[in-house]
Amino acid sequence: MAFYIFRRFVNYFILSAIATCLAYVVASLALDPASKYYGRNPQPSKQTITNILNGLGVNPDVPVLERLWNWIVNLVVHGSLGNTVGGTSVVDQIVSRSGVSLRLLLIGSVIGAIVGVTLGVWGAVRQYKFSDQVVTYGSYLVFATPTFVIGVLLMIGATALNGAAGMQLINFTGEYSAGLSGSWWDLTADRAVHLLLPTVALVLIGAAGYSRYQRSVMLDVLSADYIRTARAKGRSRNAALVRHGVRVALIPMSTFFAYSFGTLVSGSIMLEIVFSFHGMGEFTLNAITQSDINAVAGSTLFLAVLVLFSSTLSEVLYAALDPRVRN
Amino acid sequence: MTDLVSAQGPSTPARTGAPLLEVTDLSVTFPQRGGPDVNAVRGISYQVHKGEFLGIVGESGSGKSVSSLALMGLLPSSARVTGSIRFGGRSLLDLNDRQLSGIRGREISMIFQDPLSALTPVYTVGDQIAEALLLHDSALGKRAAQARAVELLKIVGIPAPERRAKAFPHEFSGGMRQRAMIAMSIANDPQLIIADEPTTALDVTIQAQILEVLEKAKELTGAAVVLITHDLGVVAGHADRIAVMYAGKLVENGTTTEVFAAPHMPYTIGLLRSVPNMQTAGTERLVPLEGRPPSLTALPRGCPFAARCPIAIDVCRETEPGLLVHGLTLPDDLPDDLAAEHVADHVSACHRSDEIASGLLTRADVFPRPAPLAVQHSRARAEAEPVLSVTGLVRHFPLTKGGVFSRQIGTVRAVDGVSFSIQAGQTLGLVGESGCGKSTTILEILEMTRPQAGRILIDGKDVSGLGRAELLRLRKDVQIVFQDPMAALDPRLPIGDIIGEPLTVHGVKPDARQGRVAELLDLVGLDPQMADRYPHEFSGGQRQRIGIARALATNPRLVVLDEPVSALDVSIQAGVINLLEDLKEKLNLSYLFVAHDLAIVRQIADTVAVMYLGRIVEYGPVAEVFARPRHPYTQALISAAPIPDPVIERSRKRVLLEGDLPSPTEQIDGCNFRSRCPLYTLLADADKALCETVDPALRSHGQVETACHHVERNDLAISASLAGREDELAP
Amino acid sequence: MSLLEETNAAGGTPVVTPAPGPAGPDVIRSAKPLSRGRLIWRRLTQTSRFWVGAIAIAVILLWAVLGPLLYPYNATGRDPLNMGLGPTQLHWFGTNNIGQDLYAQTLVGLQKSIVIGLIAGPLGTLIAAVVGSVAGYMGGVVDRVLVWCINLLLVLPSFILLVILSPLFKGLSWVFLTIFIAGFSWMIMAQVVRSQTKSLRDRDFVKAARYMGVPMPTILGRHIIPNIASLLIIDATLGVVASILAETGLSYFGFGIRAPDVSLGTLLAEGTSAAVTRPWLFVFPAGVLILTLFAVSLIGDALRDAVDPTSGVNRD
Question: Which residues of C touch B484 (CB under 8 A)?
Answer without folding.
Answer: 204
